[in-house]
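User: Can you fold this complex?
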Amino acid sequence: MNSMLTEPTAAVKIDSLLAPYWAEIVEIVPEAEGIVTIWLRFLDQTLQERYSFAAGQFNMLYLPGYGEAAISISSDPQRPELIGHTIRFVGNVTRAVSRLQIGDTIGVRGPFGTAWPLETYQGRDIVIAAGGIGLASLRPVIYQILNQRDLYGRVVLLYGARTPSDLLYSTEFSTWEDNQVEVLTTVDRADESWLGQVGVVPMLFYRLRLDTDSTVVFSCGPEIMMRFVVFEGLARRIPHHRIYLSLERNMKCGQGFCGHCQYGPFFICKDGPVYSFDQLEPFFNLEDF
Amino acid sequence: MHTHKVIELMTEMNLTIGSKVSIQKSELNHLITLLRDFGYETIGPKIHNQAISYAVVEQLEDLPQGYSSEQERGYYRLHKGNHNRYFGAAPGSDSWKKFLFPPRSTLFSAERENGGWNETINREENKKFAFMGVRPCDLSAINIQDRVFIREDYVDPIYSTRRAKALIIVVNCLHPSSTCFCTSMGSGPQATSGFDLSLTELEDVFLVEIGSDAGIALVQQIEWAPASANYLQIASKKMEKSMQAVTRKIDDPQSVPEMLLANLDHPHWDEVGSRCLSCTNCTLACPTCFCWEVEDSTNLAGNRTQRTRAWDSCFNLSYAAQAGGNIRPTTRSRYRQWLTHKMGTWVEQFGESGCVGCGRCIVWCPAKIDITEEVNSLREVTA
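Assistant: Here's the predicted assembly.
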């Protein structure tokens, strides 16, 4: 009975700061140029069984000798035994991740942060507005909706990337559409194969007629994109508190200790990364804040 | 004479929490020895590089007896005063933070083994500190860091382990310096709780207030006398004088958090940003600043690495840098972050201000930036 109490439910060691649990890379899926999804399974059997996360949360992934990076979990919360992280090779740590292979081990701490408030908005219409790799944090939302599709009203994904080949998870779009998720895409620059929309994500709002009394917006992407998603949402009289954004900052600990991710009164690692816009509004238009 | 009296009186007075006694100054040496016998590493003020710093104290003579300090904006000097006090000099840039939240801590090391990694966690060593000479403002600073590092959701194992065992001996401030503004922040010049013992240094004795069971156990083993009405009166008069000697003020301190958040676009941020060197001195000297970074150091073969936590500062350019760019690329934005956090958003985060009014950031700023003046300037209405 006693041993039950000490079994981990999350991969966070409480008696040792930043020490990771180890996980094995079981699959690497190329998603776009410079972006892969790595699938992890904990080496610890108990953790494999007990680990759980919610849509919107992130893990700190650790590569010995390089350091840690905060990476959103991009897989299905109902299948936590295999954990997907979609990673763009941009920083010191993530570029090192690009050299890893199946069977390699990687350190994991988490999950950290707040979740997209799906339970709160059962029965509502949900607009998911994502840019580039921002869809990684929102794919678990789509999976969770698909797991219980009848709990939600209309579901629309507005998604954009730089070019058609930068659109993530595009092979899954048809499955999502088959389950009554409307998928509207746009690209910054088209190629000769592209027959869809060209332009920025917020412009996709103009192709929707929304029941704004019911609609909730979840958005993740570059801050400049989210700024205009907020603008379009408010213009359609969606209230401030029903527009949710996921923010990104430099993070070292995930536990509100190291200070780096502060945004006004918030530690984004523990009070965020998901916020309703009314929480963020006082600071949202400040330069270098 | 004194000793004889003690023996008589000790049977009449039971030591309890809140008891006030007097001890001869030489008895402090006895206390230091006792602390060693109890297994404590006693830390106190010592002179190092012409300033007070905190280091191991083994005997009474280690203390900077007879010294006073002089503090101004960007200025700190120690000199021999015309007194024999042991705690006459105010702290330098050091604070107790470096013992509870060490500037560098090894967290773990990892070694490559059979294609995987095997980590060895560096468990917190069994450090038992006795802090002797903690100023009331610095005691407030420790209480503030308690709220940062020991929370309901997460606990910092290094800080909490050291903190749980630490014994605190306060020295009340009878001679505040010109950079002190503890009365604005409600942290001094007298400590009322949160210590094991508190000392008030009079000309010939220490008045000792007992604040805990550990404090009782210590005083029981040294020579003491009940604090006489005369001593108590002298102390209370001196404390009143000390309170009035704190002349640096922040206007209407209660309203500062709200005022700062209402002035995030104030032109004064540009002005102070042009003077600030982003040197990080204020954050390192600050007894409450808690930010840290973490780094890996690897051997050449790449099969062994050590993970270390080290103090960081929001003034460092790398602090808010991430793959998408630097959030705070200007000194203006970094100074704004520091000040609005320290005296503003800290309240929302931890229930009280992050500033204790110790004045270290004023003293150790090479650009002579004065936090009290900056706050008062931000209050000025712009045209």
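The mean pLDDT of chain B is 94. The longest strand of chain B covers residues 104-113.
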